[in-house]
Write a structure and sequence with these properties.
Helices cover 19% and strands 30% of the residues. It is an alpha+beta fold and 357 residues long. Among the domains are: 108 residues, Gyrase A, domain 2 (2-Layer Sandwich), CATH 3.30.1360; 81 residues, Aminomethyltransferase beta-barrel domains (Elongation Factor Tu (Ef-tu), domain 3).
Length: 357
C-alpha cells in the first residue's frame, strides 16, 4: 500500500499540526490481531515489556524482539477484549513473524490481519474535534487508552495515541470500504477548528525523539542502545523471545548508544534521505539516522547512533553528507517537551489524570 506523504510544504504541515490539527491517512499501518484462549500469554511471548497489568481498553508502546534481542518492530499494543489484542505495527512484517512463532508455541491462538484502516487526528484542537464527533466519552479518554464508538453507522476504535507527541487520537475504521466516508466526516467536523489534511510530521517526531523503524532502529539494534530499558523486564517470570540474549547484553554492557545532535551551519534543505556517517579525529564512530531543520527551535536537529565513548554531551563530531561535511555537537534529547506534557495533558474537565504509556 502507498501512504499519502505530500500535502504541500512540510513546514506548513508542521505549523498546522502544532497550531490547530491535522488528519493523516495512515491506513498502511496494519494490525496483527491475536485471539484465542492463550492470547495474553502469546502476546507476552513477543515482547520484553511486562504485560501482566494491561487492562482491557489500554494501549502500550511495546518492542517486538527476536532471539538475539534485536528489534523487529515497535508497535502500539491494544487490548480490545480479554482474549483479543491488536499490534498496530510500524514498517515491517510482523504478521508472518507472529504466525511462525504461533506454530511452534504450543499455545491456542489465532493470528490474523483484520480489516482495519487507521487515521491519525493530531494537534491541540484534536480534543475539540473528537468531542464533536463522538462526545464526552471519547474526549475523556486517558493517554494510551482506547474505546469503541460508532459514527454514521461506521464502527471504529478510538485511541488516545499518535506519532506526533501532540495531543491526538488514532481512529481505527473496521470497514475499509468506508474510508472516504470517515475521512470526509472528520474533515467536515474539524472545519471550524482549522483542521487540515496532512502527513505525520518528520520535524515534530524528531523534535520529540520519536523513532522511525528502519531509520533509527532495525533488527541489529537492541533496546538498551536506544535507552528503552523501561520497555524490558528481565526479572518477570514470563517467557519472551530474546530474554536470554537481552540478559547477556545488559550484563556485558552496550558498545553504542543513540544520541541527539545539533548540526551547525545553514538550514538543512530537507530531511536526510540516506545515512550520514559520523567521524571523530578522522575515524568513523557512528551514523546520523534522522535529521531535519526545526523552524520552531531554529536549529538543525538529528538522531544518531555512536560508539559509547563518543556519546557524552558536548562531544563534537564531523558529519559526512552527500553535500559535504557538517559539524555537530551531542546534546540532550528529546529536543522539545522532554516530559511529554503536551500529549499527556488532560483535555477535558471530566477526564481523569492520564497515566504515561
Amino acid at each position: 500500500m502507498y501512504i499519502p506523504r505530500d500535502f504541500g510544504d512540510p513546514e506548513k504541515n508542521f505549523w498546522n499540526l502544532i497550531g490547530s490539527a491535522t488528519l493523516s491517512d495512515v491506513s498502511v499501518q496494519r494490525q496483527v490481531e491475536i485471539t484465542g484462549r492463550d492470547a495474553h500469554t502469546f502476546t507476552q511471548l513477543l515482547t520484553p515489556r511486562n504485560l501482566s497489568n494491561i487492562a482491557i481498553g489500554q494501549c502500550k508502546y511495546v518492542l517486538i524482539t527476536d532471539e538475539q534481542g534485536g528489534i523487529l518492530n515497535d508497535p502500539v499494543l491494544l487490548r480490545l477484549e480479554e482474549n483479543r489484542f491488536w499490534l498496530s505495527i510500524a514498517d515491517s512484517d510482523i504478521l508472518l513473524w507472529a504466525k511462525g512463532v504461533a506454530i511452534n508455541s504450543g499455545l491456542e491462538v489465532k493470528i490474523t490481519e483484520p480489516d482495519v484502516s487507521p487515521l491519525q487526528l493530531q494537534g491541540p484542537k484534536s480534543g475539540e474535534i473528537i468531542h464533536k464527533l463522538f462526545g464526552d466519552r471519547a474526549r475523556s479518554l486517558d493517554y494510551y487508552w482506547h474505546d469503541h464508538f460508532s459514527l454514521e453507522d461506521m464502527s471504529v476504535v478510538v485511541s488516545r495515541t499518535g506519532w506526533s507527541n501532540e495531543l491526538g487520537y488514532e481512529i481505527y475504521l473496521k470497514d475499509g470500504n468506508r474510508g472516504t466516508d470517515l475521512w470526509e466526516a472528520i474533515m467536515l467536523a474539524g472545519q471550524e477548528f482549522g483542521l487540515k489534511p496532512g502527513h505525520t510530521s518528520t520535524i515534530r517526531r524528531i523534535e520529540a525523539g520519536m523513532l522511525s523503524y528502519h531509520a533509527d532502529m532495525d533488527s541489529t539494534t537492541n533496546p538498551f542502545e536506544l535507552g528503552l530499558d523501561r520497555l524490558v523486564d528481565l526479572e518477570m517470570e514470563a517467557k519472551f523471545i530474546g530474554k536470554d540474549a537481552l540478559k547477556k547484553i545488559r550484563s556485558k554492557g552496550i558498545e553504542r548508544k543513540q544520541i541527539g545532535i545539533e548540526i551547525t551551519g545553514g538550514q538543512l534543505a530537507r530531511p536526510n534521505t540516506q545515512i550520514w556517517r559520523l567521524y571523530a579525529g578522522g575515524v568513523e564512530v557512528g551514523k546520523i539516522t534522522s535529521a531535519v531543520y526545526s523552524p520552531r527551535l531554529k536549529k538543525n536537529i538529528a538522531l544518531g547512533m555512536v560508539s559509547v565513548k563518543f556519546s557524552m554531551l558536548g562531544t563534537e563530531l564531523n558529519i559526512v553528507t552527500e553535500r559535504g561535511v557538517r559539524h555537530g555537537v551531542v546534546v540532550h534529547k528529546p529536543f522539545f517537551d522532554p516530559q511529554k506534557q503536551i500529549p499527556n495533558q488532560s483535555n477535558a474537565a471530566t477526564a481523569n489524570v492520564p497515566s504515561l504509556d
